[in-house]
Amino acid sequence: MYESKRMRILIVVRHPVGGILTFFKYIYGQDCFDKYDFTVIVPDKELKDTLGKIFSNDGFEFITCDDSVEMGKKAWTYLQRNSVSLVHSHGLTAGMLIALVTKYHRIPHLVTLHDIFQKGHFTSFRGKLNKIILSFLFTFIDVIHTVGYEATDNLKSFFPRLPKAKIICIPNGIDSEKFFYAETGELFNEYKNQGKFLIGFFGRFMSQKGFKDLIDAINIITSKKLSDKQPIVLTFGWGGYIREDYQVIEERGLGNYFQMMPHTDDMPSAIKGVNLVVMPSLWEAYPLLAMEVLVAGVPIVGTNCIGLNEVLTGSPATIVNSKDPESLSIAIVNEMKSARRHEFQKYSSIAKERFSLRYPSQQLKKLYDRLIDEK
């Protein structure tokens, strides 16, 4: 076991999806977190190298578990055998799993909510029971960290009895310098030389991301011949229903308008290589992708869903109703007909400061120190 006199933070993640990992890369890569040693408990052994690069000091420890029960047991055992200054759970599930564990060991417990609540979560008998359980477990958590102000309002609307002092909003941020100064990659020259209009879809293939609405919108554009330009949707997502969604594309005869791209580690160049980014999301917390696009100076069309609306408001972005392929198709056609990239490039300098990592990283570090000092 690694011996250290430095403050150790135990991080627990039940569902280490792309957004949480990107959050880790951005936040924990900042110098202000170098004073801590980190132990991470996750259910995915394949993440060891990825997380090892993020938490790069010699004090990093990596623990895996098979399921939720084992995650709770390993957190319990680790807190019994090690000196831990703070437990930080990422995601509601992880926070609820170890709320009683941290309370028993009298360790400060911070939970970051990376998602939002919806009415459908609590309408059934089981949902109503879950809400009662959540309300109970929230009392054992010291601070709930929300990543956006609309996400904060969402939490308060479902749990109005939560003390205001227990909820702290620290909006997400990104490595804005990286996206602001990035150059366009060579990958897209072939498409541009053919006069195609490139639309980037960078979300995962989950219902939340609204990809089926984008399929419907492209079908409307092409079937009604609303534009002389041929739209090509380049998808960079993974997992979820990718096979099913692409099967729908083929069945509807839209194969010529969608192209699955290989994985890329150079997101800034990929974003800058398209004419337009579309985010037809149904809900978000405070999406990193929308910030990245705005800082990169690339046109974006998004929906008015929670979280995404907050990021796009005040920018040149076109905002349409979620679950509305007709409005989405009109917005895309308008971008295809206009040349508005200069508006987004002009706004990018504002976005670079607005979404800088300086504020969220420093505020989270201050929150760490406050919880540890109050221990």
Topology of this protein?
Blueprint: E1 7-13, H1 18-27, E2 36-42, H2 48-54, E3 61-64, H3 68-81, E4 86-90, H4 92-97, H5 99-105, E5 109-113, H6 125-138, E6 143-146, H7 149-158, E7 167-169, H8 176-180, H9 189-193, E8 197-201, H10 211-223, E9 231-235, H11 242-251, E10 258-260, H12 267-272, E11 276-279, H13 288-296, E12 300-303, H14 308-312, E13 318-320, H15 325-337, H16 341-354, H17 358-373
Parallel strand pairs: 1-2, 1-4, 2-3, 4-5, 5-6, 6-7, 8-9, 8-11, 9-10, 11-12, 12-13
Structural features, described:
This protein folds into two domains: 7-173 and 357-373, Glycogen Phosphorylase B (Rossmann fold); 177-354, Rossmann fold (3-Layer(aba) Sandwich). It has helices at residues 18-27, 48-54, 68-81, 92-97, 99-105, 125-138, 149-158, 176-180, 189-193, 211-223, 242-251, 267-272, 288-296, 308-312, 325-337, 341-354, 358-373; strands spanning 7-13, 36-42, 61-64, 86-90, 109-113, 143-146, 167-169, 197-201, 231-235, 258-260, 276-279, 300-303, 318-320. The strands form two sheets. The protein has a seven-stranded parallel β-sheet, with helices on both faces. Strands 10-9-8-11-12-13 form a six-stranded parallel β-sheet, sandwiched between helices. Helix 1 (18-27) links the parallel strand 1 (7-13) and strand 2. The longest helix is centred in the last third of the chain and has 16 residues, at 358-373. It contains 17 helices and 13 strands. It has 375 residues and is an alpha/beta fold.
